[in-house]
Design brief:
adenylate cyclase activity, Alpha-Beta Plaits, 9 strands, 28% strand, 252 residues, alpha+beta, single chain
Length: 252
């Protein structure tokens, strides 16, 4: 068997080149196209992230029937990706993916309307979970729950990887992505609702939601809570009305 040989002397020069050639970070209103990112620049703008984290996946994954597990995981990921991947004006999708038992997406959100639109996606996902569990139950498959974390912040994005290797990605440096991932772990357990928003995310979208539901007490839909690690956050169990009624009426 061949043994790995890492030419550390040659690679030291490459590392020095990387460290010395980054020429600056551009603060912009909205993140540019992916092709505008290089290995020598970076961009800083408002980004919002949503993470949907499967609850108690360890128990699910240890079930003996691999076919059952495959069906549940595919049902969980496929339509959530469909909800998250659609781009609208302004909130350009910058990254979407799956990390273990979690589906996530990161968007460029230069204005508050864009942040609200990401919140709306969380309401769709929450409603979809209700539909999915009915379909799972009809097939004798295990039901599942998920926590949905949302956060926004000014975020630094840099292209990382190795030039000309084909292995590269944007790295998100800031609270938006990290906090959304952590908040998703709080959702749908210990009395916390499935949708969990950072305080900054909530404050940037709540007035828009109130204006869209003028005759309703929108703020009563949310519960404010505090976590030693994340500070204040808001949680809720909000669904899309028409979608939810269709499910309740038998999905016919």
């Amino acid at each position: 068997m061949k043994e790995l040989v890492y030419d550390y002397k040659e690679r030291k020069e490459k590392v020095e080149e990387i460290l010395d050639n980054t020429d600056g970070v551009n603060e912009v209103k909205q993140f540019p196209r992916d092709e505008d990112f290089t290995y020598t620049n970076g961009y800083k703008a408002w980004a919002s992230a949503i993470f949907i984290d499967l609850r108690d996946s360890t128990s699910l994954f240890t079930k003996k029937d691999d076919v059952e597990i495959s069906k549940v995981i595919r049902g969980f990921t496929s339509e959530i990706i469909e909800i998250l991947r659609r781009e609208l004006d302004g909130n350009e999708l910058k990254e979407i993916g799956i990390r273990g038992d979690c589906v996530f997406a990161v968007y460029s959100t230069p204005v508050k309307d864009d942040i609200y639109e990401i919140a709306s996606r969380s309401f769709y996902v929450n409603t979809y979970m209700k539909m999915l569990n009915i379909l799972l139950e009809e097939r004798g498959l295990p039901s599942i729950k998920a926590g949905i974390g949302l956060s926004t912040s000014v975020t630094l994005a840099v292209k990382a990887g190795r030039k000309s290797s084909g292995i590269n990605n944007l790295v998100w440096i800031g609270k938006s992505v990290a906090t959304a991932a952590k908040l998703s772990d709080l959702g749908n357990k210990n009395g916390v609702g499935p949708i969990v928003m950072s305080s900054l995310f909530y404050n940037n979208m709540i007035d828009i939601q109130i204006n869209k539901n003028a005759k309703k007490d929108v703020k009563s839909w949310y519960t404010k809570a505090n976590d030693a690690k994340f500070g204040d956050y808001y949680h809720a169990n909000i669904t899309k009305t028409e979608f939810n009624e269709w499910i309740t009426n038998g999905m016919k």
